[in-house]
Amino acid sequence: MDEFHVLAQLVLPGLTTGCVYALIALGFVLCFNVSGVVNMAQGEYVMLGGVLGAWMAIAGVPLFLVLLAVAAIGAVLGIAQERLSLAPVRRSPAFIQITVTLGVAVIMRGFALIWFGKDPLAMPGFTGDGVVTILSALVPVQTLWVWGTTAAMLLGIFWFLQFTDAGRAVRACSINVIAARLMGVNAERMTLLIFALAGGTGALAGAVITPIVLASWDAGFVYSLKGFVGAILGGLRSPTIAVAGGLGVGVAEALAAGYLSSGWKDAIVYALLLAFLLIRGGVFLSGRIGLVAGTQDR
Amino acid sequence: MINRRLLTIALGASAMLATLLSSGQQASAQEEFKIGVVASLTGGFAGPAKDSMDGIQAWIDGRGLEGKKIVLEVLDDETSPVGASNAFRRLASDEDIDMIYAIVPSSSVLAIKSLASEFKKPLVTAGAADAIGIPADPWLFKVAPAVRDFMIVLANYTKDNGYKRIAMFNGTDAFGQAEIKAMKELAPEMGFEIVAEETYTAEDTNYNAQLTNIRAADPDIIYSGAFGRAAILFYKQFKQLGLDTHLVMGQSVVTASFFEGIGGASEANGLMTPIQLGSFGPSVGGETARLYAELEKNLGRQPNYFNTFGYDVGLITEAGVSGSDGTTQGIRDALEALKELPAVNGPVTYTPEDHTGQNHESIAIGRLEDGKPVLPQ
After folding, report:
1. With an 8 Å Cβ cutoff, are B206 and A118 in contact?
2. Within a 13 Å sphere around the CA of A82, how many CA atoms are in the beta-carbon half?
3. B44: which chain A residues are within 8 Å (Cβ-Cβ)?
4. How many Å lie between the alpha carbon of A118 and the closest alpha carbon of chain B?
5. CATH code for the part of the protein at B148-281+365-374
6. Beta-strand runs (E) in chain A
7. Please, what are the domains in chain A?
8. pLDDT given for residue B26 in this prediction
9. How many Å is the Cα radius of gyration of chain B?
């Protein structure tokens, strides 16, 4: 195997995993920008999308309906999370709001364990379980679905934020919610919209990647962690950098495992994050200012 | 006079009734034998733990302890050493509990081992890591062969088949690290070399990097110690990358969830695995065949490896309790005195220095055919 082949074989699967991290990172940033809350349950939507999708596929539900149902359920759960757990504590300190999201994450894990069981769930690839050669690397055909779906979702979200009235209202809330309210924007409705969007896209990502990585009730925590790294790289502010950060985390851990040590890959990824934060400096301060401003306005 | 006679009769009848009632209660209390169980009901080891518990239940249903009613009190360690320690403490602190099972992976057993002598309750455990049985804790008794025993069998297989370059894929947990450590000691003695050592954590889902490194090392045999979801993903990605190197995987792949995950039992046809004798069923013969048939009857279906392990836990308990004076110290002493006790997966022997139980003579390399291991011809 030549060096390019090795590099391709590491990077392309890393990008696939990075797609999931990127969507989770985007979810973190959108939720934080609009509501001021770091939603630590973000990764559990991916997990739920995976187990739900696998369960429905095993039951014989047509693929199109599986994906539609999973996205809809994710969106509804996002709304439920915002309404039932976060709205009541909107004026509470940030650490209480984050703790509430952690509690929601635990509930979602418990539900998945009880309802879907402890064993990993497999789902057939959308167009079979074969492999395809890309840049001399062998990747599952499902990889193309992951890339395509992720690109479509990201483009859709960015189009929504840039070119629709609702999207502009969301951006207005993230910049200055008081001004947005004065301009007639219903901030609570925008928060609901974003939680629905984050939940729906997360769940859909989970269903799309399950044919490659299986679905398991305990998979959400690591997704949340890795996606959070991507979000932090964007300062919890920039959706674009958060997406790039999520993709970068996926590639970085694959390269670390391939070229350095498979046993140290997680440590290397978190060490890089630490180095980035120390070098950049002040990222937590600007994050805190945003959170304080967000809760004060509510 | 009549009143005094009536009074005497009444008092005598009351005394007899009281004696009967109290002896009945004593009989009920003596009949109960309470076993505390720390089991991985959730987490990565949940599959093997459930199958093991089924094996234990089959032993209770078919054999049990003569004159005693077995009561299990089960706590979940969530496949976490911290959870295992906490659960063990709770159970071991209960004076009503006579002995304890730990149906948890090696890393959790090792966490419990440090507490075993503090509570002085006989403890029969799962786990394969060598450090569980040696050095011996006076109160902890392992069942399955040590990791080193499995690696001895694998090393002999590698040598006997003329393989010179082996690649290892192991977990970062105690079990996985014990495998690679044992193989590093055996490889030079057996005349082959380890050309790749790749690891994974339980949360990993992408093994492309590890498999790419393994392929680049050009081994002629690959051993994967992965279990649970990791085993399914490793096997699928191994196939997807088009690797055709001779593959051996750990015995924990012989489970329904592995076969479902890879798309059916036939997808694993030809896969080799070092596995304990009980999994081969009646074809092995001897005491294994007899006890296997007994287990199959009590279980109501064909047993898998972890069912046989659970049954062996019960057989060891039976021998320990029947050879004791009924006290926890007595049970401990009786367990330590067991020599060549017949069990489904091979004879069990304990010594004061070695509480491992079974050894490499209870293991053979099997080839999977439609989900069942068969002895190669």
Report:
1. no
2. 26
3. 218
4. 6
5. 3.40.50.2300
6. 131-134, 137-140
7. 3-297 (1.10.3470)
8. 45
9. 24
pTM above 0.95, yes or no: no
From B297's Cα to the closest Cα of chain A, the distance in A is 26
Is the model more confident about B8 or about B203? B203
Is residue B103 within a helix (H) or strand (E), and if so which, with residue range? Answer: strand B99-103
CA–CA gap between residue B331 and residue B302 (Å, rounded): 31
CA-based nearest distance A117→chain B, Å: 9
In this prediction, residue B27 carries a pLDDT of 45
Q: What is the mean pLDDT of each run of 10 residues along chain A (298 residues)?
A: 86 94 93 90 96 95 96 96 92 91 95 90 91 92 95 93 92 89 91 94 95 92 91 86 92 90 83 82 52 42
Let me know if domain B33-146+284-360 sits in CATH 3.40.50.2300.
yes
SS3 B194: strand
Is the Cβ pair B263, A129 closer than 8 Å?
A: yes
Domain extent listing, chain B: 33-146+284-360, 148-281+365-374
Distance from CA of A105 to the nearest CA of B (A): 16
DSSP characters over B52-97:
HHHHHHHHHHHT--TT-EEEEEEEE-TT-HHHHHHHHHHHHT-TT-
**Contact criterion met (CB < 8 Å) for A131 and B212:** no
Residues whose CB falls within 8 Å of the CB of residue B342, separated by 6 or more in sequence, listed in order: B287, B291, B315
A vs B, Cβ pairs < 8 A, gives 88
A215–chain B nearest CA distance, Å: 9
Choose the closest CB to B257 out of A13, A119, A221.
A119
Find, in chain B, the residue whose alpha carbon is nearest to that of A256.
B209
For an interface test with A, the pick among B77, B199, B205 (most A C-beta atoms closer than 10 Å) comes out as B205
Beta-carbon separation of B208 and A10 below 8 A: yes
Please provide the DSSP assignment of B265-306 as one string.
Answer: GGGGTT-EEEEEGGGGGGGG-HHHHHHHHHHHHHHTS---HH
Q: Give residue B197's pLDDT band: very low, low, confident or very high (50, 70, 90).
A: very high
Whether B33-146+284-360 shares its CATH topology with B148-281+365-374 is answered yes
Q: Is the peptide bond before B135 cis (omega within 30 degrees of 0)?
A: yes
- Residues shown for chain A: 298
Each residue of B98-144: pLDDT tens digit?
Answer: 999 999 999 999 999 999 999 999 999 999 888 899 999 999 999 99
**Which residue in the set B172, B229, B263 is minimally distant from A216, CB to CB?**
B229
Bridge partners for B140 per DSSP: B123
Determine the residue type at B199: T
Residue B21 scores a pLDDT above 60: no
Beta carbons of B192 and B163 less than 8 angstroms apart: yes
Selecting from A14, A214, A253 the residue whose C-beta is nearest the C-beta of B229 gives A214
Chain A residues close to B208, C-beta within 8 Å: 9-10, 13-14, 254
**Whole-number pLDDT of residue A290:** 45
pLDDT tens for residues B258-280? 999 999 999 999 999 999 888 88
Residues 6+ apart with CB under 8 A from A103: A85
Q: What is the value of ipTM here, to two decimals? A: 0.83
Helix and strand element counts for chain B (H, E)? 13, 12
For residue A215, the 8-state DSSP code is B
As given in the structure block, the two tokens for residue A192 are: 């609901």
Residue of chain A minimizing CA distance to B213:
A258
